[in-house]
Amino acid sequence: MKAQKLPSGRFRTQVIVGKDANGKRISKSFTADTAFASEKMAMDYVSRYGAGQAIYRMTVAGAINQYIESRTNTVSPVTIQTYKMIRDTRLQAIMDRKITELSVPDVQLAINVDAARLSGKSISEAVSLLQAALTFQGIETNFKKRVTFPKSRQKKKLLPPPEIIIRTIKGTKYELACLLAMWLSLRISEIRGLQYGDISKDGKWLSIQRSIVYSNGVDHHNDFNKTEGSTRTVSLPKELYEMIMVQPHDSDTDPIVPHGYNCLYKGFRRLMAAQGYEMKFHDLRAVFATTLKGLQIPDDYVQHLGGWSNPTTMYKHYVQTLTSEEEKYQKQIDEYFSGALDTGRSPLP
């Protein structure tokens, strides 16, 4: 890279950052008052973002940036923001290392540094991004199986039984959203994405096919869910159907739950804190799973309802029926939560 003097007397250095759809080179210019300053700006950019950089010169930060760039418009904006957050806050000890010289001890050292402030899960996510970025450059690694992650320090949270939660939320504006999370195991983003048109004509099925993800103060409207298995159709209990339909609405595109993320998240936390429980909205899915475990509902059915796994989707369309076994499980679930809703007491012994 060599700076060129412009007619204005300033200096410009150009970096080839890629090619467009027609194969034409795309360049980025760095202009400064001196040749040195212009070239340094260009070199800093190349070092940080890996643009136009030969693989033997590319740093970890540069490789991750190229990977992020390659995923733009193919994954959600929230995922891109997460990648950038990981790039800027994790494994910082190796970001300036050349990828062709990166070793297992290097990665382990970076993990050890981060272990003082981050969970094993957070560090594992960073190593996964690192591996994906290196694979994108044609370098196959297996760091996740060759390094040691810190043990989880997360304490088991004591969650209240459903009847206490129902008694707490009953009659509040959070009731429907909380029941959708605890009874049907919907994520808060899925709940906020629900529309009246997602209910089948007979009122017996609810399709979860979009989400509204809140990130960095902005709502991101997605016509998809977190995973392929998250796009599902579940049985809609009569009680929830009636609660939904009694609300004023004008069209199929009206939201079933019109409240914002902070309204639901903070409001629910305040209600539960007043009862002496430190509980997040997402914990309602844990209550769902724990309750179904107590009802001895098979794991594969629980996983389908919660969208946690990706088996062959049982209900991709409204025109579906439950098998006799599934009808039995769903009846158990609905009877339990219906009883808890009516009496505020758990039918379980």
Automatic annotation (TrEMBL):
GO MF terms, alphabetically ordered: DNA binding
- Supply the Gene3D superfamilies for this chain: 1.10.150.130, Intergrase catalytic core
Record key words, sorted: DNA recombination, DNA-binding
Quote the InterPro entries the UniProt record gives.
DNA_brk_join_enz (IPR011010), Integrase-like_cat_sf (IPR013762), Integrase_catalytic (IPR002104), Integrase_recombinase_N (IPR010998)
CDD domains, per the entry: INT_ICEBs1_C_like (cd01189)
Q: Which Gene Ontology BP annotations are present?
A: DNA integration; DNA recombination
Domain named Tyr recombinase: which ranges?
144-332
Source organism superkingdom: Bacteria
Q: What is this protein called?
A: Integrase
Organism listed in the record: Ruminococcus albus
**UniProt lineage:** Bacteria, Bacillati, Bacillota, Clostridia, Eubacteriales
